Amino acid sequence: MGYSTTQRCLVLVYANANIDLLFDNGRILNIPQLKTSNDGTAQLNALNVAGDWAALATSTGVVVIDLKKREVKGSMSWEPTAVRRLSSMGHLLPRGIGR
Fold this sequence. Notes:
disordered C terminus; mainly beta; 4-stranded antiparallel beta sheet; single chain; 1 helix; globular
């Protein structure tokens, strides 16, 4: 999990790849695209939240969420290698790409 101070929400990612945004006012918004778009093989390796963005390092690549628009902005695949972690230096960067 990670917290966005700009959007005032907690980003929750579950083992089944389902994503919830829990806002300070108690509202919960589900973002099911990662769960529904993979065949169960994408495993979460890391989550990084920076400003209005969240990036998920997975066993198949990176998924980027626009927290302001509350939607998946895009994904990048590095199959058959996995992205292990992400860095933030003003923007999100993949690190640790490999098996």
